[in-house]
Amino acid sequence: MKTLILVRHASAIRGNSALNDFSRPLDRCGESDAVTIAERFAESDLRVDAVVSSPAVRARSTAEVLAQKLSIPVRVDERIYKDGIQNLLETVRSFDDRHRTVVLVGHNPGLSEFLRYLTEDNYADLPTATAAVVNLPIRVWRHAFAGHGRFKGILSSSEDILEINYGPALPWTGRYRIWQFEHAKQIYLTIIFVFALVLILGIVGLVLHQSIDASALPQQGSGR
Length: 224
What we know:
The longest helix is centred in the last third of the chain and has 33 residues, at about 185-215. The protein folds into 2 domains: about 1-170, Rossmann fold; about 185-220. The relative contact order is 0.15. It has a 7-stranded mixed β-sheet, with helices on both faces. The protein contains 7 helices and 7 strands. The chain has helices spanning about 30-45, 55-70, 80, 85-95, 110-120, 170-180, 185-215, and strands spanning about 1-10, 50-55, 75, 100-105, 130-135, 150-155, 165.
């Protein structure tokens, strides 16, 4: 089981002609909310192994406050700032498999779209300084895909504790698809093995059949 925690950065100052989007820092409220959300993580039963952040100033600042509270380093991945489901999915699939719980700090609308993609549920957009906790029934991160996750709850700077909102149980079709994906390699190898075995048995049978036919032919000079 893996746990992915999607964190939207805390609120930042608005962009202007002198400041591009990438360089926007947290505003005063955002700085306070970043500290609060970090404290919520520390108070919860979440055991975070890694924090991966967009390189944008507002996201990295949020991630660094969180990581400092959790006493772990921040890793930056440019794909998170590029946004989009495919970039976020590639980022998650590149996580170290030794990590069971990873925090990904990024931006909207990408994070909220990614949450809906993973769970196939129509959750509302994530507010700033808010985390969505998603359980992924996988053993390795590269197996993450659409509909794989189960929404576990929201951790917000405006809440005193982690509020767990369990989603509906995964239907058997979803569980079967996850099982099929998890065991795809074994399934393909089994199919190849069976195909190869049938082919070998067919060749052996053909050779034996030809040998029997050859032995049944009259030998030269046997009619004299």
